[in-house]
Amino acid sequence: MNAQLTEIMRLITNLIRTGVVTEVDRENWLCRVKTGDLETNWINWLTLRAGNARTWWKPSEGEQVVLLSLGGNLETAFALPAIYSNQFAPPSTSADACVTEHPDGGWFEYETRHRALVCQGHQINGH
What 3-state DSSP class applies to 39? Predict the structure, then answer.
């Protein structure tokens, strides 16, 4: 195989990869991801909103993500959270619920069938 074809194959392979978050820099909104034998430099992760309305939800170390690399170059990659794993399984298998579980045991669930919002935590405040 010639060198040009080898390079094209490498770029195609790197367009979309899966990996595991190894480090998170909260102050600069960046993470590092291990994919196969490679580890990325500091890269951005995608979030739900980043305009007038914004969300903050950093990835966790050990969380599986999808790496999307513009042009197949891992230097341009960003992380798309998240993929369930044995370490981080889904908090519910309900067909009708939206559930968010936090590491301290707190969680909230909205069950559409019953139109019910249920929250559990050490302290729940409402305004």
Answer: strand
Kindly list the distances between the CA atom of residue 116 and the CA atoms of 96, 97, 109, 126, in Å, as whole numbers in the listed order: 11, 9, 8, 16
pLDDT tens track for 6-16: 999 988 988 99
Q: How many helices (H) and strands (E) does the chain have?
A: 1, 9
The set of residues, in sequence order, having a beta carbon less than 8 Å from that of 33 and lying 6+ positions away, is 19, 20, 21, 22, 39, 40, 43, 65, 67, 77, 79
Q: What fold is seen in the domain 3-83?
A: OB fold (Dihydrolipoamide Acetyltransferase, E2P) (2.40.50)
Q: What is the pTM of this model?
A: 0.85
Q: Please list, in sequence order, all residues whose beta carbon lies within 8 angstroms of the beta carbon of residue 30, skipping any fewer than 6 positions away.
A: 24, 42, 43, 44, 45
CA distance 66 to 69: 10
